[in-house]
Specification:
Blueprint: H1 20-35, E1 39-42, E2 48-52, E3 61-66, H2 80-95, E4 104-108, H3 122-127, H4 133-136, H5 146-152, H6 160-163, E5 168-176, H7 181-185, E6 189-195, E7 197-206, E8 210-211, H8 223-242, E9 249-259, E10 265-266, E11 269-278, H9 281-301, E12 305-314, E13 318-319, H10 322-334, E14 339-344, H11 349-353, E15 359-364, H12 380-399
Parallel strand pairs: 3-4, 3-5, 5-15, 6-14
Antiparallel strand pairs: 1-2, 2-4, 6-13, 6-15, 7-11, 7-12, 8-10, 9-11
Helix pairs in contact: 2-12, 8-9, 10-12
Bound molecules: zinc ion.
Zinc ion is lined by residues 67, 78-79, 112, 175.
Length: 415
């Protein structure tokens, strides 16, 4: 709540990356990290890291993190709950005098939300070696380069290669679900199976403009008829693909545009943009092919041309590590908490971390599944339950030999 109160006063809860308020939030967070016995520094990619060493100098780090930036008029839990959980976990270990074998790092990843540079997950891209020289040239509306903004928050674009980590044993992120499933089912913990891949398609139909009053209904070439057909089709196909039981699939037409856009004009062109998300690449590829075919036949049925069929962006799904999923599931069970596997329909820093280390996520219920709004809310006991699961999971990973459970000698083999 204290971190949430560091907000633009007339637009709660807003603390955008690279703003003076963001710096104030981080200063406060770094103090809390140090109180919890962590040494703090900012890495070359601008991530705030609090670290405590482990007993075995040769072991890789266990990392727990999320993000402290918000969307405009966002909530107090998206991102922040995960950092608060990491700090609470470090504090509990310090209070109990528990020294882990592995180093523990609590991380506030820089700029997870889309920002004025038009790039999300800046810090987790950096840690994963996915922040490119091209990205650093991205310019804000104030004509500042991302590289310059990175320096302002304590990063070092010249040393970006050093930010890429190869020494992470396991990465965990606690996050509010941002959806309604856990609350509706009365389940305490979501064990994230995958972070969806997101593909955006743009389709344009070209027809013939005409007078809305004098052109008879037959013989019209109205491209919006084809676009409208596709809106309904996208919904039906998404429902059918999700029903296959091969993983999360959703698709949305979020943009529909008819030109020239007069109430008494038959449109000459119509454009739709589709956002499709899936944890299974095969479902996405099937959707893409079907979308291509259906939009051609919709055009033919409406006597219009299908013009552009473009893939605006295409990100692969990121799988959460199977061993860490099991660790989280067992940790919840050990604490007497219910859990279920689920995909994340939203993007997260762990999607990038999964490229360099075993990564996993703990979801907790939030009120009515609402997020990216000041009404976003998670009960204190829900955050506490998630934090206890995270602590248990960290302790379990810490007790495993390097390389995870697979490297453990089966108990029966020990004489
Ligand atoms: Zn978030």
């Amino acid at each position: 709540m204290t971190l949430g109160a560091i907000t633009e006063p007339d637009r709660p809860y807003t603390r955008r990356a690279f703003s003076p308020l963001f710096d104030r939030g981080r200063t406060w967070l770094a103090e809390r990290m140090r109180e919890a016995g962590l040494r703090t520094h900012i890495d070359a990619a601008g991530n705030l890291i609090g670290r405590r060493d482990g007993k075995c100098a040769s072991l890789k780090s266990i990392l727990v993190g999320s993000h402290s930036d918000s969307v405009p008029s966002g909530g107090r839990f998206d991102g922040m709950a995960g950092i608060a959980a990491g700090i609470a976990l470090a504090r509990a270990l310090a209070a109990a005098g528990v020294e882990l074998r592995h180093p523990l790092e609590v991380v506030d990843f820089l700029a997870e939300e889309p920002n004025e540079f038009g790039l999300s997950c800046v810090g987790s891209r950096g840690i994963s070696g996915c922040l490119t020289a091209e990205h650093l040239e991205f310019v804000s509306p104030k004509k500042e380069k991302l590289a310059e903004a990175l320096i302002r928050v304590g990063g070092d674009p010249a040393q970006l290669a050093a930010a890429r980590r190869g020494d992470i044993e396991a990465a965990f992120e606690l996050h509010i679900e941002q959806g309604p499933v856990l609350e509706a089912e009365g389940i305490a913990i979501g064990v994230v199976t995958a972070i969806v891949g997101i593909t955006r398609f743009e389709i344009e139909f070209q027809g013939r403009a005409g007078h809305a009053g004098t052109t008879p209904m037959h013989g019209r070439r109205d491209p919006l008829i084809a676009a409208a057909h596709m809106v309904g089709w996208v919904r039906e196909r998404a429902v059918a693909l999700a029903a296959r039981g091969r993983g999360h699939f959703v698709a949305t037409v979020g943009i529909i545009e008819a030109l020239p856009g007069g109430s008494n004009v038959i449109p000459r062109s119509a454009r739709i943009v589709i956002d499709a998300r899936s944890e299974a690449r095969s479902l996405m590829e099937e959707f893409r092919d079907a979308l291509d075919e259906e939009s051609r036949s919709a055009a033919a049925a409406a006597s219009v041309e299908r013009g552009k069929f473009a893939i605006l962006s295409d990100n692969l799904p990121a799988m959460c590590d199977a061993r860490l999923q099991k660790v989280i599931e067992e940790s919840a069970a050990r604490l007497g908490l219910t859990s279920r596997p689920m995909a994340s329909g939203a993007g997260h820093d762990m999607a990038f971390l999964s490229q360099i280390a075993p990564a996993a996520m703990v979801f907790i219920p939030c009120k009515e599944g609402r997020s990216h709004t000041p009404d976003e809310w998670a009960r204190a006991d829900a955050v506490a339950d998630g934090t206890r699961v995270l602590l248990e999971a960290v302790l379990r990973v810490d007790a495993e030999p390097p390389g995870g459970a697979k490297a453990r000698v089966p108990q029966g083999a020990v004489s």
